[in-house]
Amino acid sequence: MLLRSTYESFSTGIYAPPRAFALRQFLQTLAVVSLSGWLVSTANAQTTSLSVDHGVAVKSDTGGTPKLAQTVVISGTRYEQFVENLPMAIDVIDQKEIERSGISDIRDLAKNLANVEVKRAPARFTVTGVGNSTGRDGNAGFAIRGQDGNRVLMLIDGMRLPRSYINGSNAFGRDSIAMNLIRQVEIVRGPASVLYGSDGLAGLVNFMTLEPQDFLQEKSAAPKDFGGKLFANWSGDDHSRSLGASLAGRINPQWSWLISANASKAKGLENKGTNDVPNIDRTTPNPQDDKTQSVLAKLVYQPSTTQKHSLSVEHIDKISDFELLSSRAKLPMTTASAVKGETAHKESTRDRFTLTDRYTLNHGWVDHVQSNLSYQDSSAQDDGVTHRNTLADRVRKVSYAEQAWQFSVLADKLFKSSSDFAQRLSYGFDYSRIDVSNFFDGVDPGNADFTPRKYFPDTRDSSRAVFVQDEIFAGSWIITPGLRYDHFDLDVKTQEGFAPPAKTPAKSLSGSAVVPKLGVLYKVNADWNAYANLAGGFRAPNAQQINGVFDSSTVPAVLLANPDLKPEKSQNVEIGVRALFEKFNLDVAVFSGRYTDLIYDKKPLGGKGVAGDPAIFQTVNVDKAKIDGFEIRGQVQWAEFAGGQWSSPFSYGKTRGTDQVAHTPLSAINPSKFFAGLRYTTDRVDWQLNARHQAGKDEAGLSSPYLPKPAVPPRVRQFLVPSVTTLDMQLQWTMQKNWRLNVGVDNISNKKYWNWSDVQGLAANSVVVDAYTQPGRYYHASLVVGF
């Protein structure tokens, strides 16, 4: 009853109870849940014995036949566990798959995943004038089950990646990742884990970087003292080419090291546009030059089998230069302010230092302890110049930065009361402190109102959390209750540079919540299991959302602050079945989420947007939304033929969402996507043909078939993407023992198509619709030499 009461109280919007009450409620609920779990599990214990090893519970007498390779993940419980034993849907992309499939960025990661997308609009933003940030954020970030942006928790080695930030013509995305440094990516759908944070309402994307051990072991598992790889990549979709190396060595049995580095250059993403004119009607890509440099260094000390210490240093630097031909006015230019041209420069850097310690103690209430201390300095700068017909040039310099400290401790203890019952208790503490700042500067001749400013004040965004999770293994049951207490503070550090010119000072905000989770998995037999997952979500607003303002006498628009903004909350249910046979595996999940107090950024509140009646915007909470859907994923292993093994991976996902106040669909939901492949493997050849079908977007899936403006007839309809089926092919050839050539061709039939996330809000009668198309047929290749 206490668990239910806690959940219902949370779901009705009681997000900030007095701190003493919240902690008392947390501890009481924890005690009841743990005791109830023990009693229920014991009552339902089966006679089948269990083997529990490092938190993985499997039947020891199933007598089942050998199965397809089981996947090991850490995102479910923060320690290694088979996916089949977790009551949640997880996708895993390892280093081998990243290389074989030619995955070069997060956009490639999401290509074949059900209900997962990455927005990548064309670079058609403007530097000044009417705010237009289209494509300035590059790969904007992940959308999972209909939710995107900062609702997706993104981690690298346990450290939170920088948030996205959009304001006017400036946008900073979340693609601060270099895939050559990554050994595995795990994507968890929904807020299924209390161990990582409640703010991942949509899910978790967990990046894990390379380890020295990845290169210090022969295929026979024999250790070696030095290893690594050299690689060169090329891709035709953005004309990228890169060179890199990963080296690892063992100094002695206790010390090992790794260093990996990469440098790449690229152009703008290709499309199917054909109008190459240098003005606003242009549909071919704008000229663009990208440069990326990445370095990862690790030092690992393992003095014994009971402890391990690792120091990681990571540096990412991305630079882009744009010539915005699509901003130019058509000839003849008849006004003094007509745009003759625009150029832009973007640079983002991320530096991270992480110290990780792991101990095996095996006494008292602790078997294992791991701690993680990280510092991350992230900054991004958008610069640009607008050249006008006869008026002086306008210059913009906009920056956004996060300096973050993060510390976490996780401990666990395994209790075994009998041969068929075990209980693993995991508990810990998380602390995060992020200093967030921004600055708007430049030159605007003739505009007396132009003043360098901060759109929101320098803010310290800190959070503290304690959590506990209890995995109960009883016969065929795995029951996993969990609780997390989160407290956040948004503290304004200074009003300097913000108020004035802002008319009122910014305000601070704080809040807290107790968020529950319950997972239940039942092993029906040796081949099948079923699971259910109930989880809450809680995401606090950020500094821009509560204190962001804009007010200018020369621009007929006003953005109001909202220091009373409430955190977003969610209730989520997922039910699934999973099969793992000798030649076939299947994972089916049905999910439903209920969201309250969703944050609507910069909602129009009124005003015509003209002098004397400016358009008024404010970030507000909207009442309720519902998102439902399902996913089917799996693989079939066919018979051997032509000297090799044949198999077929497949996935299909569909999501729908409803605004429960307006009773209209959520327009942002992406259409369904189906993927199926045919794969052929031998010792030296790995070939795969993929078919991907993306459904179209129709008016039934929109809150309105019309664009918001103009609000009076004649109104303009939105552009709707048609359905499309594309084919891709990839081949890996192991030429010699450690030489691998990877080649591929995407969009073999050269189809013209769009992704809904890129075009949402585009007018159906727009003459530049083709500028938003995806690349046509293109090739990619890489050469990898291991040693």
UniProtKB/TrEMBL annotation:
- Output compositional bias ranges, type Polar residues: 272-287
- Major place of localization? membrane
Q: Does the keyword Phosphoprotein apply?
A: no
Taxonomically, what lineage is the organism?
Answer: Bacteria, Pseudomonadati, Pseudomonadota, Betaproteobacteria, Burkholderiales
Q: What is the species of this protein?
A: Undibacterium fentianense
PROSITE patterns according to UniProt: TONB_DEPENDENT_REC_3
Protein name (database record): TonB-dependent hemoglobin/transferrin/lactoferrin family receptor
The record ties this protein, via InterPro entries, to: Beta-barrel_TonB, Beta-barrel_TonB_sf, Plug_dom, Plug_dom_sf, TonB-dep_rcpt-like, TonB_haem/Hb_rcpt, TonB_Hb/transfer/lactofer_rcpt
The record's subcellular locations are: Cell outer membrane
Keywords in UniProt for this one? Cell outer membrane, Membrane, Receptor, Signal, TonB box, Transmembrane, Transmembrane beta strand, Transport
Entry keyword annotation includes Nucleotidyltransferase: no
Residue intervals of the TonB-dependent receptor plug domain: 84-203
Instruction: Name the membrane topology term.
Output: Multi-pass membrane protein
GO annotation (BP), single: siderophore transmembrane transport
**Domain TonB-dependent receptor-like beta-barrel residues, every copy:** 343-748
Give me the Gene Ontology terms describing cellular component. Answer: cell outer membrane
GO terms of molecular function? heme transmembrane transporter activity; siderophore uptake transmembrane transporter activity
Q: Which family does it belong to?
A: Belongs to the TonB-dependent receptor family.
For region Disordered, the annotated ranges are 269-290
